Amino acid sequence: MITGIVFFFAAFVFLLTTYYFYFSYKREKKLRLILFRKNLNNSEEIERTIREKEKQYQDIYDTANSIIIRWSPDFKIHSINPYAEEFFQTTKDLAEGKDVVLDLFQIPLEKSNEVKSQLWNIFHKPEQNIRQEYEVFIGESDKRTVTWSNRILKNEFGYPYEVLSIGNDITNRKIAEENLMKSYERILDLYNNAPCGYHSLDNNNIIVSINDTELDWLGYTREEVVGNFKFNDLMTESSQDKYRLITNSFPNENLTGVELEFVRKDKSTFFISLNSTSTFDKNGNFIISKSTVFDITDRKIAEDKLNDYSQKIQLQNKRLQKAVEAAIKANRSKSVFFSKITHELRTPLHAVIGFSQILDKDPNLPNHLKGYVNSLYDNGVHLLGMINDILDLAKIEAGKMTETREPFSLVQLWDTLFSMFSYRFSEKSISFELIGSENISSSFYEADLQKIRQILVNLLGNALKFTNQGSVSLEIKIESNPDQSFDTVRFIVKDSGIGIPGDQLHSIFEAFQQTEQGSSYKEGTGLGLSICQQLVEFLGGTIHVKSFVGVGSEFSFEIPLTKLQIVPDNLKEKSKLGPIHTNEIFQMNKQEESEAEIVQSFLNDSSPELKKEILRLIRIQNFGQLTGVLKEIQTEEKGKKILEQKVQNKKYKFLIDLLQNSNPFE
């Protein structure tokens, strides 16, 4: 019984134990399965993370803008990134296994050990990121400076198996640094060797820097001055008081041109001019002052001498002033005398010239006296021209010249000049013409026509006087601006005369001056060009000359002329362009010859009394009465109409020729 109970109890314990271990095993198996699945998931996550890190690393490795090289302790290349391939102009396949110093960096053999020694030093500091800088070569001539960051990679046992080197090309930076250093050296050289002194002062007025120039002036060394001397210590006592007064009155203000006296180390003195500028921080606190110093000792000596000279000059000026006043007074007296005497001379001279003209045209004048009358006329005209020149000069010097403005046209001006000079040029077989006639057909102005005409008459008269063959021309150029009320008109008189030597051009516009050729060639006062220049300047213009001996001369002047806004009809009528070349005179002469024959026929057909009366009135130049006589003649003959037109237009030459060709005894 007891045995059965024991057996039953033992069986129960066994079953209970078996059941416990069975469920424990089953639960552990389940836990193991859960743990396995969890570890499997973690492993996959770790592996995925590793793959992502490797991809990121590879991306960085491939796209980095730096040189990346992996090499072993025996200097053999494991790999290079694409940037390194491009930089060293090689490929990864060609570089792997090669010597990093000899093959990739292309270091010459004699220097390779030195570079390898630098690289080997990396392994003495395996825990640090070692930075190095050395030169590498690309090709045969391209040398680059590269800065390297080196990191040793270790295996699981802690032994170095690879070096990761990251490099950056700093060649341009090194060049810039070298250039900057050279610039600094040049600036420093300029600072020290400048022709003026430079120094800087701190807030205690102590010299903190000074250049070599100022040290040479003072006779000190830089060590003696910098940090030891105050600026006041360099001055004389009087200059110290002056400087102290200025700086106390204007603290921290810029100083300009302050004159002080410096004391050298050997106790000699010299004068300087000081310019000073102060520098402040953002809070307005004084930092430093910078000053330039100029040695003005020579200037001070010169100023002392100049003061002495100034006193002497002032005394001399007083004497000269008295002499000038006396000269002005004498010049005024001369001008008044010239003005009076020329006025008195011109009146009888006009009478002489007028009577000589009447005598010359008188058909009753004996032939043996005509030469004397012509000489009388020529000399009278010459004398009158000289008197007029002197009178004009007297007016100019006396300041009595006035401007008389009147409306006129350039066509009108040309016609007047052509009528004055065309026959005179023709008599010398010299052509005379207007150039640029198309420019003046509609040019109307308001100005002093008499003075402009006088200038041109003088210039054309000189051209006639000094030209024996060839041509003389007048060219008129107009520079117009619609926005201005005036035009700039340029008159150019060009001749083929004897010319003027270049060394005498400077004196031709002076009063009473003539060139050597001019004075020996023709008589004259030497006033014409001087008057021209002063008249041109009075009208607000300028005059110029170009000349070559044996070739000719060109005189030109330009003046501003006020444009005429409203042109009167009578001025337009007067401004119809006539002949522009002396060749046209011959054609007009032929026409006048034909007209003269018609008028002569009319006179011959008239009664002797009428013919005699008409010739008498022409001889005494009583054209008013002659016009009345012709109007009373009841005929429509062409000869009468031509004669009336010539009388009305006062064609003196035609009428005088008609008188000379008629029978003087009629």
UniProtKB/TrEMBL annotation:
<keyword id="KW-0812">Transmembrane</keyword>
<feature type="coiled-coil region">
    <location>
        <begin position="299"/>
        <end position="326"/>
    </location>
</feature>
<dbReference type="GO" id="GO:0009927">
    <property type="term" value="F:histidine phosphotransfer kinase activity"/>
</dbReference>
<dbReference type="Pfam" id="PF13426">
    <property type="entry name" value="PAS_9"/>
</dbReference>
<keyword id="KW-1133">Transmembrane helix</keyword>
<dbReference type="GO" id="GO:0000155">
    <property type="term" value="F:phosphorelay sensor kinase activity"/>
</dbReference>
<dbReference type="InterPro" id="IPR003594">
    <property type="entry name" value="HATPase_dom"/>
</dbReference>
<dbReference type="InterPro" id="IPR035965">
    <property type="entry name" value="PAS-like_dom_sf"/>
</dbReference>
<keyword id="KW-0472">Membrane</keyword>
<dbReference type="InterPro" id="IPR003661">
    <property type="entry name" value="HisK_dim/P_dom"/>
</dbReference>
<keyword id="KW-0808">Transferase</keyword>
<dbReference type="InterPro" id="IPR004358">
    <property type="entry name" value="Sig_transdc_His_kin-like_C"/>
</dbReference>
<dbReference type="GO" id="GO:0005886">
    <property type="term" value="C:plasma membrane"/>
</dbReference>
<protein>
    <recommendedName>
        <fullName>histidine kinase</fullName>
        <ecNumber>2.7.13.3</ecNumber>
    </recommendedName>
</protein>
<dbReference type="InterPro" id="IPR036890">
    <property type="entry name" value="HATPase_C_sf"/>
</dbReference>
<dbReference type="InterPro" id="IPR005467">
    <property type="entry name" value="His_kinase_dom"/>
</dbReference>
<dbReference type="InterPro" id="IPR000014">
    <property type="entry name" value="PAS"/>
</dbReference>
<dbReference type="InterPro" id="IPR000700">
    <property type="entry name" value="PAS-assoc_C"/>
</dbReference>
<dbReference type="Pfam" id="PF02518">
    <property type="entry name" value="HATPase_c"/>
</dbReference>
<feature type="transmembrane region" description="Helical">
    <location>
        <begin position="6"/>
        <end position="23"/>
    </location>
</feature>
<feature type="domain" description="PAS">
    <location>
        <begin position="183"/>
        <end position="244"/>
    </location>
</feature>
<feature type="domain" description="Histidine kinase">
    <location>
        <begin position="340"/>
        <end position="563"/>
    </location>
</feature>
<dbReference type="Pfam" id="PF00512">
    <property type="entry name" value="HisKA"/>
</dbReference>
<feature type="domain" description="PAC">
    <location>
        <begin position="256"/>
        <end position="308"/>
    </location>
</feature>
<dbReference type="InterPro" id="IPR036097">
    <property type="entry name" value="HisK_dim/P_sf"/>
</dbReference>
<keyword id="KW-0597">Phosphoprotein</keyword>
<keyword id="KW-0175">Coiled coil</keyword>
<keyword id="KW-0418">Kinase</keyword>
